[in-house]
Amino acid sequence: MTESLGVARDQLRSIVERVERLEEEKKTIADDIKEVYAEAKSNGFDTKTLRTVVRLRKQEAAERQEQEAMLDLYLHALGMIADTGEEE
After folding, report:
1. Three-state SS string across the chain, please?
2. Cα torsion angle, 35, 56, 67, 76, sign
């Protein structure tokens, strides 16, 4: 039993150490991304818009179109976008 406890302890330690390494890598990557956005900002780009573009590029075209259609519908319903008057 103590042998299996030792094996379980070693496996647990290994898992924890792997997660810790990955968390550190994740932090390093997040810092690198932050630096790229800072560089973009210093070159005159709007970082909020860049983040939106990056998020949109991750989506499938159909998903993006559906989301844009829903946004358009909601904006029209709230009177934030004037009707084009095509159906008059």
Report:
1. CHHHHHHHHHHHHHHHHHHHHHHHHHHHHHHHHHHHHHHHHHCCCCHHHHHHHHHHHHCCHHHHHHHHHHHHHHHHHCCCCCCCCCCC
2. positive
- Structure confidence by residue, pLDDT tens digits, 27-58: 999 999 999 999 999 999 999 999 999 999 99
Residue with tokens 């573009």: 53
Q: With bands split at pLDDT 50, 70 and 90, how would you rate the model's confidence at 83?
A: confident
